[in-house]
Amino acid sequence: MESIKDKVAIVGMGCSKFGERWDASTEDLLVESCYEAFEDAGIESTDIQAAWLGTLNQMSGQILAQAIKTEYIPITRVENWCATATDAMMNACYAVAAGVYDLVLVAGVEKLKDSGVGHLTRASAQPSSEIMPHVPPPAQFAMAANRYFHDYKLSYEEGKRILAMISVKNHHNGSMNPKAQFQREITTEQAVEAPLIAYPLGLYDCCSVGDGSAAAIITTPEKAKSFRDDYILVKGFGLAVGGRQGTLRDYYDFTHFDETVYASRMAYTAAGIKNPLEEIDLAVVHDCFSITELIIYEDMGWSSRGRAKEDVESGFYALEGGLPVNTDGGLKCFGHPVGASGLRMIYEIYKQLQDKAGPRQVRNPDIGLTHNLGGRPGSFSCAVSIWGRRG
Amino acid sequence: MAGIVSYGAYIPRCRLGKETAGWGLPVEKSVANFDEDSITMAVAAGIDCVTGLERSAVDALLFATTTSPYIEKQGAAVVAAAIDLRRNIIANDNTNSLRAGTLALRSAIDAVDAGTANQVVVTAADCRMAAPHSEFDRNFGDGAASLLIGNTKVIANIVDSYSVSDDILDIWRVAGDSFVRTWEDRFILETGYLKVLTEAVSQLMQKCNLNPKDIAKAAFYGPNPRRHAEISRKLGFNPQTQVQDPLFGKMGNTGTAHALMLLIAALEEAKPGDKILLASYGDGADAYLLEVTSEIEKFTPRRGIKRHLESKQVLLDNANYLRWHGLMGQVGQGIDGDPPSVSARWREREEIDRLHGTKCKTCGLIQYPSQRVCTKCHTKDNWETVRLSDKKGKIFTFSLDYITSSLDMPLAITIIDFEGGGRGLFLMTDLELSEVHCEAPVEMSFRKMHSSGGVHNYFWKAIPPRV
């Protein structure tokens, strides 16, 4: 089998303002992100041959056609929990790499703020016995935090402080990002003292619920040169879909997520990366909760098991550190419009690889990685993508 | 001759007592938690009764109550499934009378004597509501009793009985009533309780040629402590030595379960040869004479009454109790709306009611919920059923959710590892926060998760070990 490496290029991207967009409908958000992408690529909507749309709450791709007024082109709507947008990108790339299309739009969107409640509500679900307790996402990940503290002998205070440092880092990065929902610094004390959402996670350990959209224009590497000089190339994808192994196996430890381990190794292999710590220059990962980011450091093979706290304390993952993570502010500052997040992450990598990240710019990045994780400890869909500057 | 083979009981952990703000009476009464009702309490008492015994040997299950959650739908079918009894049994509800418990006992005895059943489990449970701060509020309690009736290894023979049927509106409810209705106090007690219970007991004593001094313990229903003491004296029993404490001030009048719970309290202290008098009242009266056998010395102790009484948690605020029962306008998790999918729930009934998981016969892994294809070795359709409801467990990990539930705050969510294997995600209830941590011990309890669209959705929750 062949690798996807260097077979697809991104020549334009757009990203809406994320947050409580009372003023914007799903269509408005798509217009915002897609038209920024068209302008960035120097194309019109009529140039698009096919599209992939990532979204949880909308059925079919018709909403995209309606928003940007494509005329009867193929549009595939993709859903894979929080891995949705990356999965959409992956599938669109396969179509380009297969030579079926050479100008494709990938868009992701989610409008969550019309539900009337502050927390994430379930999308209209299959009728069920409703016997399984509805466990909201903060409580799901809190279960990983409690077991992590227990297994690695972190006191409540120590554990809270490490988690807080991750949120502080992300807020620092987000404060420099005009597209983010939250653009202010916070302190470790504020995070530690914040009201509890699901013990031990407090308000600042949890990403918010918000609206947003992001989009990309992809093509073949050969055609890419005619669009711009600073296009970026795909290096690899990984997608690992769990089958509730962690839920059903009574020997699962709740302190790591296998899906991230598998997806990251798939992506590293596709990209030919042997030493991720050396070869990856920045990463944007799925910090739905602070504990998630902590565990991701270990699952990705960056920090040793149980020792991520040392790397947090040393600032290894900070903007100026050895491997900057969530340079754009992460889910913490952007919120998590589920279908859009994966593409918002790729947007940051794209801008960073083009040296366009302004005050957040990482020095001379060559390879950037995104990571998306959807589900809960016990069963996830995890998607990883790796991108690089053109050679 | 039919007799009692085993017994069990259940008293909820929660109490209203003098420390309860907004209630503050100098007595305690037991109150069902927001996720308990007559069905869940009957299950707990029934399990206490059959623990360690062969459940597949039970031929009938009777559920006696005046507070069934359903009107047209059997509670007994739910209770039988949760206790994990066979499918081909007689399950029947006895309702509408404070005497339903002892009437169910009558049916059980008759079935065993007639040979239509070898073993019958009788359960009786009530959680009657009284108008706040009324005299009834002071005296009513919630609880359940269970008896296993059979004819081998009998610990107490049922020697004789006398029943009176009496049509009187002394204390009653009609459909839709939250609280009991009564006629004038002196009428209902003198023409009802005192007169009719006395009639049944004295007729039985006469029939059996007995004097009060022949009775080791008299266990009988009472509406309140004063009238209970009055009838004891009237019947000639010594309240200090011969009368089973009716548990006012600690538990309260538990409706149709009351007389049977007092009988169980008496059996817990009984010796071989003791004659026990059991009497209950409601639309008439039943009086039973029992004689304890030497089997009682070999009988494995149950949680019964004593140990449940000792294990308690006094509510700090009466407002919580009122909210549980919708008396302060707040409805719990599961705002009344669409029901869950009844067909989906029916399909999952074994894993829901009986907490059955599957054990893969190829690799031995126990999985919950049931899986056709084993998660570990991928073998398809090679498994056996495992009952998890009677296993001890411990918390592998947990969280406390502070935002989504207003009735149960914080909501304790746990991953429970079962002794012997298997694991599941369960809510936890009846807890102090200090009892929720990694490695904490738990046991499983059948509870009502929520009600919506007229469907009462029952499932298992984890609780700190009760005794």
Walk me through the structure.
The complex is a heterodimer of chains A (391) and B (467). Chain A is an alpha/beta fold and 391 residues long. Chain A folds into two domains: 9-114 and 211-232, 3-Layer(aba) Sandwich (Peroxisomal Thiolase, Chain A, domain 1); 137-206 and 234-389, 3-Layer(aba) Sandwich (Peroxisomal Thiolase, Chain A, domain 1). Chain A contains 14 helices and eleven strands. Chain A has a nine-stranded mixed beta sheet with strand order 3-2-4-7-1-8-11-10-9, with helices on both faces. With 467 residues, chain B is α+β, with helices and mostly antiparallel strands. Chain B folds into two domains: 3-324, Thiolase/Chalcone synthase (Peroxisomal Thiolase, Chain A, domain 1), CATH 3.40.47; 350-463, no CATH class. In chain B, 24% of the residues lie in helices and 28% in strands. Chain B has helices spanning 38-50, 75-82, 100-114, 135-139, 185-207, 225-235, 258-269, 306-310, 318-324, 342-347, 349-353, and strands spanning 3-10, 14-16, 29-30, 60-65, 90-95, 120-126, 143-150, 156-165, 171-172, 181-182, 217-220, 275-281, 284-292, 313-314, 356-360, 366-367, 383-387, 393-401, 411-418, 423-428, 441-452, 455-463. In chain B, α1 (38-50) crosses α2 and α5 (185-207) packs parallel to α6 (225-235). The longest helix of chain B is centred in the middle third of the chain and has 23 residues, at 185-207. The radius of gyration of chain B is 22 Å and the shape is globular. Chain B starts with a strand and ends with a strand. Chain A binds chain B through residues 119, 127-136, 138-140, 142-147, 150, 195-199, 201, 243-245, 247-250, 254, and chain B through 340-341, 344-345, 347-348, 352, 365-368, 371, 375-376, 396-404, 410-411, 413, 415, 417-418, 421-423, 425-427, 438-439, 449-450, 457, 459.
